[in-house]
Design goal:
346 residues, alpha/beta, globular
């Protein structure tokens, strides 16, 4: 790949090329590399009020599998065949004529899956380059984790908390945050013994139930003999049903994700709910989505930066290098190959 210098680009004389990842066709099942194509295109030139960003990191998330379908219930635009995918990215401003951004500024935006992004100034959020010890940390799913713990499950001191999908980008942080909010016992779920061991040894989980190692409800009863007080649910399906069975009186159940549906390739994964049982136990069950709680993002960034520097929080993630690895990154995320977030360094 050849690119014009930052100085040339700032003067509007860029003449290089860059790469972007486009959706080649819609999936009919699992994510495979042939669903994507990597295309070389000219580096775009910004007009007045636009920002040209050289992306340094991009994140992938399970919701991207849902967005590959033509329609979905997710309140985000689906990907279009023949067009670049989109998602969270961090990068440096190359040029931003007619805006209050300057070359070299660190920004976050939603036009990842390309080496250079051209966007309106309103779509770029300036970041403090000195706040995080690693700029990739801005791509954590911590705001969702904080939202689910604080505003969804309303975790309180002494709670027994069950986090489903505990080894993912959200769950690997949710357990840590629940502990900070006073949880006395934190139980996670995951899909392998290897990940379960890491959750116990590295992330402070007290117990882990393993998908496929026996009925989830039976495992959860052993892990939480006195029941659960709060649920942070990333999955739904059997795991949500087990949590409902074990929920104590006054329990708060937060529905934060729906991986059982998103990753099955078969659509919805209904969960039977005994509403009379919820009523008699005064249980609260609510769905929470970050687009309604974006005010938590600055708070999370401050909390995460402090925790990373002091060693009270960790950022479990896998990092792949080069935009050509982006399809693989998403495929391996969906396959459950990694613990924590998955980031592509461009």
């Amino acid at each position: 790949m050849t690119n014009g210098t930052a100085e040339d680009m700032a003067k509007g004389t860029a003449s290089g090329t860059c790469r972007e990842v486009r959706l080649a066709r819609r999936p009919q099942g699992p994510v495979t590399d042939d669903l994507f194509e990597i295309v070389e295109v000219p580096v775009p030139e910004p007009g007045s009020g636009q920002v040209l960003v050289r992306n340094t990191h991009m994140g992938v998330a399970a919701v991207m599998r849902t967005l590959m379908d033509e329609t979905s219930a997710v309140p985000m635009p689906s990907y279009e065949i023949g067009a670049p995918l989109h998602g969270a990215a961090v990068g440096e401003v190359v040029a931003a004529p007619g805006t209050d951004l300057n070359p070299g500024d660190l920004v976050e935006h939603r036009l990842g899956w390309r080496e250079y992004s051209l966007l309106d100034a309103g779509g770029a959020q300036r970041l403090d380059p000195d706040l995080m010890p690693d700029p990739a940390a801005y791509l954590s799913q911590g705001p969702t984790a904080l939202m689910g713990v604080v505003r969804g499950a309303e975790v309180r001191p002494g709670d027994t908390v069950f986090v489903t999908g505990a080894a993912g980008g959200v769950g690997s942080l949710a357990g840590q945050i629940a502990r900070q909010y006073g949880a006395a016992r934190v139980i996670g779920s995951t899909g392998s013994r290897e990940k379960a061991d890491r959750l116990l040894k590295e992330l402070g989980y007290d117990a882990v139930v393993i998908r496929g190692a026996g009925p989830i409800e039976e495992q959860l009863r052993k892990a939480a003999p006195e029941g659960i007080d709060a649920l942070f649910d990333n999955v739904g399906g059997e795991q949500l049903q087990a949590a409902l069975a074990l929920a104590n009186r006054g329990a708060r159940l937060a529905i934060v994700g729906a991986l059982a549906s998103q990753l099955s390739g078969e659509g919805a994964a209904p969960t039977p709910v005994d509403t009379l049982s919820l009523l008699s136990r005064s249980i609260t069950m609510r769905g929470v989505a970050l687009h309604d709680h974006r005010d938590l993002i600055p708070e999370w960034n401050r909390r995460f930066a402090e925790g990373l520097r002091e060693g009270t929080l960790t950022f479990p993630h896998a990092r792949l290098h080069g935009i050509e690895q982006a399809p693989r990154a998403l495929r391996e995320l969906i396959e459950g190959r990694h613990l924590g977030a998955v980031v592509v360094e461009l």
